[in-house]
Amino acid sequence: MIKHILKIIWNQRRSNVWIFMELLLVVAILWVMMDSLYVDIRTYRTPLGFDITNVYKVNFGKMSPDIPGYVPDELHQSSDGEDLIRLVDNLRQNPQVEEASLFYAACPYSWNTSWNSLIQAEADTAQKANVFQYFRVQPAYYDVFRFTDQEGHPLRPIVEQHTGEIVVTADMERDFWNGQPGLGRQVRWSGTSTGSMTVAAVSASIRRTEYDKSVPCFYNVWRSDKDVIDVAGWAQAQNIECCIRMKDGFRAEEMETLLQQMSDRLTVNNLYVSSVKPLQEMRASFLKPRTDNLTKKCFLVGFMLVNVFFGIVGTFWLRTQYRRGELGLRAALGASRSKLKQFMNVEGLSLLFFTVPLVLIFIANVLYFDLPDTYRQPYTWWRFLATFGSALLLLAGMIWVGIWFPARRIAKMDPAESLHYE
Amino acid sequence: MIKQYVKQAVQMLKENRLVSVISIAGTAISIAMIMVVVLVFQIQFANFYPENDRDRMMYVDSGTEVQSSEGWNRGNMSPEAVRECFYSLKQPEAVCGYASQVKPLSIPGKRMYKAYDIKYTDPGFWKIFSFRFVAGKPFTEADFDSAISQAVVSAGIAKYLYGTTDVVGKPVIIDLATYTICGVVEDVSRAANTAYGDVWVPYTSDHILMSNVYSEGMCGWFAVCLLAKDSHDFDAIRQELLGQIARYNSTKKDAQINFFENPITRFDVAIGSEGQSKVELKDYLMETGGLLLFLLLVPALNLLGVTQSSVQKRRSEMGVRKAFGATFGVLVRQVLYENCVITLLGGVLGLALSLSFLPLCKDFLLKDSGTSLSGDMIFQPAVFLLALLFSLLINLLSAGIPAVQVARQQIVTSLKDGEENR
To answer: CB contact, 8 Å: B114 with chain A?
Structure first.
């Protein structure tokens, strides 16, 4: 049968060549799309390392002298840093608030980041100092964002049980000590700095956003209020970041009322809570360009599928019209209707499978030049099968659906009438 | 003659309904996708309220670099740099410096915590953008010079604060600073991204913004928008600016300011240029052109198969016409004209589809979510011309080859319905 169909396809080459070229183009582009969707979706679905549901970012402000209510320096003893700590305590005491934490350059979904080099203190050989992203956080940060260690235990108790001012992620531990445990080890800021710091805990790997791969990074933990006050000294208290986690069941719409109710507690001397924003909102706007890109790709895939559907329906519909005679003859000679349908299906699918060798050449070239994203997801046989297979399957499905229309027409055909056309 | 072709084409449409529907729908989807790309570009490029003179505007946004012996700082400029380099330019019709901040808005007695977009700007802003005032008027040169806390608010914000747009003279509290509302303007779409804001105030009224400068007072938070007298002046303005920069730099000890390739024009912005990275037209055309070509080619290949079949069906008719003296050109034109009916129908449908698709999908198509669309962004003559152009292109792509083929055939072969050719 196959040989026969090949012959038919060859004889129909004039009208087949266009649909073949379309399939060729579409299979190739669809594979590219599928591959990039595969990377995005696989990456998106791996655990992030933290949880932002019910978390809100609190922005602070500092009054300037011309604002009514400004407290001149001579009237208050406390520093801005101390005021900030009191302000956050006020927030934390609200029964609706589960936990509040101060941190610096550590807010998820924000562009405000810090980077610094870190080296092992024990190693005496000169090391290449790599620069890593790092976060300055209070231990409460780990509760606000529900960070865990590699086994899934909450991180904060672990940090509090051990001494030390550094927490590294699992990636960092692997990077630094080649799989040896990093807990309790000594690190330094750079080759020239004196004094070393102790690793207090190892957290699970974290990723900056859903679309990024996890990279080594570390935390500098503020153990005491003094650490916060020190940072407030050089970074200005109002620039220190704060997030609060609300109790389960709290809804975002209630936030405004809650803040208005406690508004007299939201100012401590010259420092005040300026605005509050759900982290979900920050996430949405931070991820927007990449999420949009994903949506656009899906639309393009849809566009291709619809076109293949139209192309197949059109081509095969017209073909059944010409070949009514031939098909009638077949029916008269005893071919069942399902057999006739099968003929057309095999014909359409063969067209698709003829594109495979050419597309494989294309894929080999693309892979040779390393154009697909192999940074976020490694290129494996499984990835190839999943992307190429799904591209072919989607198209095969479309072709099958497309052929269903003309095939139904054949089913209605009366062999005697069809033979008129012969 | 053309009337005859149209009649014939309509007859053929009726004869083979399914194929006609598929051809028209295929063209429509292709045109719809292409027009969405065009419309998204147009929203970036066209003149509309309140950016009615975009074709004469130039921008320096996040395009400032200050180099010193300590390294470089990239971002925006200080109010001093705005004054020294831009206010003193002779060529432009108007110049404005602006900074955007996100701050909560309240009214006396009711503190609120939801943040809005505040634009800190100058009187030049009101000359560059053609805001429609619902009530009141912009803040004046005198207000600006003496740092008087006057604010223009959008109608939406006026309603949010007071429930009415009749708010001139009433106070609005931005963070904690009290401003007096001097004007109310019609709401601005986020698509007008330079003019966009919820509240506009003179930047001299915010001490923190004014004093938050670094790198010898050259870096800060300000961007600049210029309005040229004529779009031919762009190069002259850039030349004049170079002189200003040199003069300004000579007043500094170490730091040197430059604006990369800024100011850029609206066209540069529309093709994706930003302050620190200018996109070359060539690269834009490669990327967008590639996408458009793909959106054209896939349906064209589809239609090719269909037109090929329907043209071949009429070989004998063509043979007769040729025998009676129709030339090659006449026959090709006939096929193209007939096909035109399909593509134009598809084109109109596609344009309608794209116009209804855009508002539904604007959230992922446009840069900012929640962008409101208005008629003057979308209904520009260029849109209709381009839709027509792309439809004709599809027509040419999908019917050109079959038309030439059938017109070139020997009369005898055509008359015999191409039997010898098989």
So the answer is: yes
